[in-house]
Amino acid sequence: MENIALIESFSEFKDDKLIDRVTLMAILEDVFRNALKKKYGEDDNFDIIVNPDKGDLEIWRNRIVVADGEVEDSNREISLAQARKIEPDFEVGEDVSEEVKLVDLGRRAILALRQNLISKIHEHDNTNIYKQFKDLEGEIYTAEVHHIRHRAIILLDDEGNEIVLPKDRQIPSDFFRKGENVRGIIESVELKGNKPTIIMSRTAPGFLEKLFEQEIPEVFDGLITIKKVVRVPGEKAKVAVDSYDDRIDPVGACVGMKGSRIHSIVRELGNENIDVINFTNNEQLFITRALSPAKITSIKMDEEAKTAEVMLKPEEVSKAIGRGGHNIRLAGQLTGYEIDVYREGVEEDVELKEFTDEIEDWVIAEFSKIGLDTAKAVLEQDVDDLVRRTDLEEETIKDVMSVLRSEFEE
């Protein structure tokens, strides 16, 4: 009973950790073997008998009987006189098994045992959490806001597991209060030291894909396949869908009557504008669809270089580029092509990179970010609109326009 009472005192917190008795006893055996190594230098001549049903274990030390005065290794050998105190009929050369009581290890060793046991149980607990969430990577998960920090929100699930939602994985319009439930996908799980770090994301394309699976039965059932998702989180997304059943309209099924099916997804993503596009292996047609809502006049493609020159009527250009250049950028990401927009009827134009002697590279890059790569494309824009859409000062934009105008006045 002595061992049982001591073990129960060690494992009094096992119920909180939901560790079954068999696992606990296996951890105990490992902890005791480490203690035996520290006290006796080795543990391979010890037998540890575990009884999970009773919650008990026994420790037996095995030694060989040698003649009195000839003991060289007190851990492995026992004198005849000492052996006969255990059993009076022992003889030299026989094996002696003697039970080691836990209290024989000493008070300090028992305190160390307890601390080591706690550490091992935490390690076991953390390993299980790591495995559990590693299997959930890429899946939608819901947890409650526990603590709001400047760079991240700390969430807790129903089992008390901590999940981190970093600032850069939050949609810009996200605003959460303590106690509120948050949905996202488990983006990554890493062991840092012995503690698992679980990262949630609401900005990953995979989150939008999983929302489609949850909200649209045909996607969940595999009747509609999501080929690719690209996003500017909180602003705009494009989703290419396909169906192997000709009777199904994949775009119509995903959007629903008057947007009824996609509405909940849009709301979850902070009113992100979602374009659902029919996928096709015809790359020219795919680019045309990807640039929707703009209507394209013609396309000149270089399949090797993965570039496409798209001709549009002047009134369609702003639609193709989209607010902040999001539409043309996402169309390029979706199709894998670098897309350049040209206005129909404009014969003479000059690319901005030709002005590097007069305009700094970083300024040209700012215009390029919003889909403006030629002189006339910039000159057709309103200055105030360019100030809003770029990180450029009004004076800088006016200077650039002055340089560009002079090119066409010469």
Can you walk me through this structure?
By secondary structure, the chain is an alpha+beta fold. Among the domains are: 2-131, 2-Layer Sandwich (N Utilization Substance Protein A, Chain:P, domain 4), CATH 3.30.1480; 136-201, Nucleic acid-binding proteins (OB fold (Dihydrolipoamide Acetyltransferase, E2P)); 204-279, GMP Synthetase, Chain A, domain 3 (2-Layer Sandwich), CATH 3.30.300. It is 39% helix and 26% strand. Strands 7-6-5-8-9 form a five-stranded antiparallel β-sheet. Strand 6 and strand 7 (162-166) form a beta hairpin. The mean pLDDT is 85. InterPro entries: KH_dom, KH_dom-like_a/b, KH_NusA_2nd, KH_sf_prok-type, NA-bd_OB-fold, NusA_N_sf, TF_NusA, TF_NusA_bacterial. One of its GO terms (cellular component) is cytosol. Monomer. Binds directly to the core enzyme of the DNA-dependent RNA polymerase and to nascent RNA. Participates in both transcription termination and antitermination.
Furnish the topology, listing elements before pairings.
Blueprint: H1 2-10, H2 14-17, H3 21-40, E1 46-51, E2 56-66, E3 77-79, H4 80-86, E4 95-100, H5 107-134, E5 140-148, E6 152-156, E7 162-166, E8 181-192, E9 195-201, H6 205-215, H7 217-220, E10 224-232, E11 236-243, H8 250-255, H9 263-268, E12 273-278, H10 283-290, E13 296-302, E14 307-312, H11 314-321, H12 326-335, E15 338-343, H13 361-369, H14 375-379, H15 383-389, H16 394-409
Parallel strand pairs: 2-3, 11-12, 14-15
Antiparallel strand pairs: 1-2, 2-4, 5-6, 5-8, 6-7, 8-9, 10-11, 13-14
Helix pairs in contact: 3-5, 10-12
